[in-house]
Amino acid sequence: MTPAKNLPLDDPTATGQGGDDAPGRTARRIAFGGFQLGGRTVTIDVEPDRILDLLTDVAGLNRILGPDVRVEPLGDDHYLWVLARDESEIRVETDLLVDHEAALCSWRSIAGADLNIEIRIDLRPAPAGRGCEVAAQVAYQPPWGLMGHLAAKLRGIDPALQGRKALKRLKMLLETGEIATAAHRRTA
Amino acid sequence: MRALTWHGKQDVRVDTVDDPQIINPRDAIIEVTSTAICGSDLHLYDAVIPGLKAGDILGHEFMGRVVEVGARSTLKVGQRVVVPFTISCGACFFCKAAQFSACDNSNPVETQEASETMFGHAVSGFFGYSHLTGGYSGGQSQYVRVPFSDVGPIVIPEGVEDEDVLFLSDILPTGWMAAENAQIRPGDTVAVWGCGPVGLFSVQSALLMGAGRVIAIDHYPRRLELARKLGAEVIDYRQSHVLEALMEMTGGIGPDAVIDAVGMESHGFAPDNLMDAAKQKVGIGADRAHALRMAMMAVRKGGRVSIPGVYGGLVDKFPLGTLMEKGLQLRTGQTNVQAYTKPLLARILAGEIDTTFLISHRLPLESAPEGYRNFRDKQNDWTKVILKPRWDATGSLAEVLSR
User: Fold this and answer.
1) Looking at chain A, which terminus has fewer C-beta neighbours within 10 angstroms, N or C?
2) Given a cut of 70, is residue B371 above it in pLDDT?
3) Taking the model in full, what pTM does it have?
4) What is the chain B residue with the closest CA to A126?
5) Which residues of B touch A179 (CB under 8 A)?
6) Residue A160 to residue B384: CA distance in whole angstroms
7) Which residues in B lie closer than 8 A to residue A176 (C-beta atoms)?
8) Which residues, listed in sequence order, are joined to residue B258 by a DSSP beta bridge?
9) Is the pLDDT of residue B114 over 80?
């Protein structure tokens, strides 16, 4: 399986980083070379290894992804991501890269996948002993371009939103041991 | 179980709903023995706080007995507990800094997005409140699921009456934090707008913290009388010009600190308040901030402004020039209840603080809709309403009140 090429997260210029110190994905641009970028950083008060361990464990990952997204292992660092809402389903085969030394992991769609996407997590120490800053970024080429991106946003299934929610669940799970819910009763 | 549920503006009912269950390991289930109607419940009742849904169970001031615990709860079945209205994980950056009402992890992911859009950051979870704060079921019910039960609830010794400690759940710590935010120095003069429960506890707390004088402002005679009994001087704003009176009473200097314990439903026949009320009525403004504007005008140059009163959205005609030109300091926030429960319980048990003086009515849970209506419409006499889920509710309100 060959990773897709031309994904922008390794290229600061492509992600819009320019004349200031703001993260590239916050640039005032509608698209980044045909890609949509989204992301969020949270600070989690645990060791980086615990974060990478949870993210690279399928059960842990599925726990934080929420009801619309799931991951299935295909063996040898290959994973199938499934985004399902109502009757529609998008399936994306990805390669996982984990670099403990660089404190990052990323899932990158393989060539020919239904969706050209990269999900990347970078870890860095938080200042003042606050733990670890976890930066999640998602770059993807929406089917039907900008219109497809807006449609996904309207339906609440755009990858950046899903990634942001997953990141918050990750923080909850690692800091508190559970994911907050206002539910009154257990679901079946 | 039976629970007080919200169905729309000034429409609350006692319905039969499913009992709660343990969902997460740190949960506990509490059987409610006493619960109260809070002034901020009236903001929900009047539908001026956004984000409620029909069927939501209200109530964020409650206490009771532990009947079930999750695997990681530190509570034991049978213990009596008072539960803070703020739901806090105890593990995030904010909880570790004792800013429990800013907890990062208690507002569920599904409701954080709206909270972020509204306020810039997701706020913590609260019981029985808006879905901006999680939409958690509240305590005006027979049972409640209490998340993070190892952090929030405080265990109450047997033999202590519910009414002596119930207000540790919200209004006593809120009044205390309001006085703390006023940064009172010995001998200071402090003016408190609003003699509702939080205002009265602010008066009590300010005096305990060493204020030389506290001046309480309201227009309900009974509430002013309660403030006077605590040791405050009082101003009835229907009888006196408040700003002039405060200037005269402070030798032309102004109060050293002011506390706005009124919040978003300010009363009073003033031009700014009439405009706010009109905007609130048609849904283009959330807050009526007349009391806050007046407090900022009244406070002395370099003074401190403390805002325990609840505000939920946007307001205009905010006296920003007053803030800057007079060099004021402003502190506010939802109460970090967990930071105060232990020291305040100790003061109650030592007899330094009485919390029962403001209770006017005790009702069965089944009479809660009448409690809401009267607490809203008869504020002079209905100063604080306690609801008892176990009490017999048969008969008229008059019969119930006579028992």
Assistant:
1) C
2) yes
3) 0.93
4) B93
5) 24, 108-109
6) 47
7) 26, 89-92, 105, 148
8) B191, B305
9) yes
